[in-house]
Each structure stands twice: as C-alpha cells, then as structure tokens.
User: Fold these one by one.
Assistant:
Number 1:
Amino acid sequence: MGGSMRKFSKRMGLFAGAAAAAFVSTLITPTSASAAPDAWQCTPGAFCVYTGDNGTGSVCAWTGDDPDWTSGSSACSWARGTRVQSAFNNGLSGSPVAAYTATSFNGTRAFCLVKGRRINLSGVGTYLRSHTWKC
C-alpha cells in the first residue's frame, strides 16, 4: 500500500502544481485597460458623428442645431483637423439632420439623414462644420 499511496501523492502534487501554474498565468496575462466602445454608440435623441467607419472611433454628439462645431459650448474637439467618416441620426423626433461643410449651415450639404439612419461617408470622409435638424 505504501507504493500506491506514494503514486497517489505524487499525482496529486503534480495536479496541484499544474492548477497553481494555470491560476498564476491568468493573473499575469496582459489585458487591455478598457474595451473599445461598441460601434454606433449614440445617446438617444442625439445626432452623432464618428472619426471611423461604421460608427467607430471618436464621437461628437448634439441634441440641437450647431452652426459651428469648432467653437461654442458644444464644440467637437477633433472636428477642425479630422474628417467625419460616419454619422448616425439617433433623434427622438422624426426630424432629419443636414450636415454642412462650412459654419452657419453654409458650404456643401454633405447629407440629409432621416431618423434612425446611419451613414458611412465615401472615401476618406468629409470635413464637416455645422448641422441643423431640418433638410
């Protein structure tokens, strides 16, 4: 019985060692500090624009008209030097949103986006500067 007990003890020791090693490896495995946000995240009632395709990247959001995205209380921090790649009208009313390439709703109207609609802007995106909740 002494021999079989030693084999059992040796197996249990090996099992315990393997389990401990597996546990320690889960403690030291690197993970990202924070998960990437889900695509198309946009507060209900808002119009959102994104630096990446398919509602990814940095986002700016508004619940009302904004004649100048680069100044004022609702400034979009990246709008001056980064193109919009995608947009989402997550408004609560049935109002569409029109976005423009210049301030004060001037320049080219890039799109008119109906409620609930998402869009990817073609190519390398578009520099946008203002929007209004009417087309």
Number 2:
Amino acid sequence: MKAETFIAEIPCVIVYKDSCKTSTTKDTVITEERIALYLNGKKIISTMSIPIDQDAHAVGFLLSEGVIEKIEDITNIFISDDGLSVFIDSKINEENISNLYHEKTLTSGCCVGVTGNFEGKIIEKFISSHMKVSLKRIWKLLEEFDSNNELFKLTGCVHQAILALENNECVISQDVGRHNAIDKVVGKAKLSGLDTSTAILLVSGRLSMEMIIKAAMHDIPIIISRAASTQLGIKTAQMLGITLIGFARNDKLNIYTHPARIALE
C-alpha cells in the first residue's frame, strides 16, 4: 500500500519562538489502530500499530516471544475484513504461551512495552556465525535505509527495520513502534521462507535489551542502528554473540560487540 493510506492531515497552530508569531496550517501525521491477535481462538494481546502487514507482525511477534517455535507450526492465518484482528492457528507448547502472561518486565519501548520470560532461551543461545561484511556494504545499506523511509519523511513518526539478506535482497517494514517494526520484518522473512541467520538487521530505534533478544531469537548475527544502544543492550549482544553497531550516521559508526564480523579493510 502507498504511504498516503496511513497518514492524515490535521490542523495545527505553529508558534515561532523569536517573533511569537503564529500561523495556521495542516500537519501530516501517522494513523495507528489497535490490532488484536488471537492464537487458537484466544485473544492474547493487542498492539497499537500501523494497519499493514498484520499477518507478518503477528507471526514475528509470536516467534520472537517464543510462543511459536517455528514457522512450520502455523496451520492457518486469517485477517478480519476491517484489518483490526489477526487469527492464527498453530501447534504450540502450552508452557510457551503461559510464559507470555507471566514474569513480565516493563521495557523502555513503546506500543507493546513488555518482554516475556526469555531467560531459558537466552542461556542456550549463542550466535556463532562466521559471517563477514565489508564497511562498503554497510555504508551502502545505510544509504538504502534512508532512501526507503517514505513514511518517516512524511510524518517524522515511524520506525523502520530492514533485513539485508545474503543475496542482497532486502525486506523492509515500518511501524510506529520500534519493536513492531522488527516483528514485522522478521515475520515477512519467515512467511517468505527466507533465512535470517545470514542477514543484517538495520533499525532506526535505540538498541535496548529486548531488541537484541528479538534478533537472537531469529539467529540474526549483526544489528546496525542509526541510534544509541543501552548498556544492557550491549551486554546482551556480547553474551549472545551478536555484532552490535550503533550511531551509524554522519560517516561514522560505533562497533560495540564482536567486531570480527566487520571487515575493516
């Protein structure tokens, strides 16, 4: 769908600091909706998000949370006519879904803002990929990242996530929430049968712990952000074997963890 589908023109008054003058205009803002997710007939969560790629968002969320262990377990996906409800039928371990409701941690994120019980998954997970990527490719991907974000240019109000695959194909998603953007992009990849274990994840938002965990759940070895990383995000990436790059802007970047995957020459 075109970006115009998810924007609205809202009247506003602009005030200028130096002159104290005002002007009336219309501002371009993003639209968002409450999307309900049902798993095997039971409503498990609602998220505030842009009503596009709802199936990918639902699949990515369930896989990232460990509720569904693999894409092949899903037997049916249905989106309601109004686009505000997603119904998924899947083989699941009941213990996995119970973890979604217990031992929650409030996070620094927006929209969903909760992280489930990942501890058992984290301890067993280490990304041992020997993947190498050149700085030249990283700079090119960052240029593509900026050129693709039409909704942000219009509204200044969305996060973007891109999965750059080994064959140079890119999967792109945008949403009002940085968590949602990642869930959507990995959901798209999984629904298309794409391998994320050799992918680079580029995001616009800050790299906090739960963002790193989402990537680890999909065996993604390299994460790059235009924004900052938190101390716990860096610690988590180090523990999970993920190469973490932040502040990738203005012709420089910070490599925080596992720099051996980046070819500096």
Number 3:
Amino acid sequence: MNIKFFQDFFLWCTIINSIALFFWMLMFIGGSNWIYQFHSRWFKISLEEFHAIHYKGMAFYKLGIFLFNLAPYIVLLIIE
C-alpha cells in the first residue's frame, strides 16, 4: 500500500459520502412531509423538532466528511 492508494481511497470516500449527503438533502427537500408522517407513527415529535434533527444530522454528517474524508485526502496531496 502506497500513498496513491490512500489518496484514491479518501477521494472515493469523499465522493460517495458527498453523494449520500446530497441524496439525503434531496429526499428531505422533496419529501419531508411524507418522511415526517412516516416517522411520526412511531415517535411523538413536532415538525420543528423533526426539521431540527435532520438539519443537525446533515451538519454533523458534512462535518464528518470534511474531517474524516476530505482533510486526510488534502494532507496526502500536500505530503506527496
């Protein structure tokens, strides 16, 4: 395993996780009412709490992408 392998690995991790985040965002924008109705069958949650949970989840996921995928990729590019 060399540095090129890890560069490719972190690049693909960044791409795949960014696509997952984008898909989550599209599903939330396009179907948030349906998703809320689906989840409100199991949990007593207000619409405001539901939106806050999703926004926080997306923010943490994006932060995770930056910290654990993009930052190592950039570091590997710099040290190469």
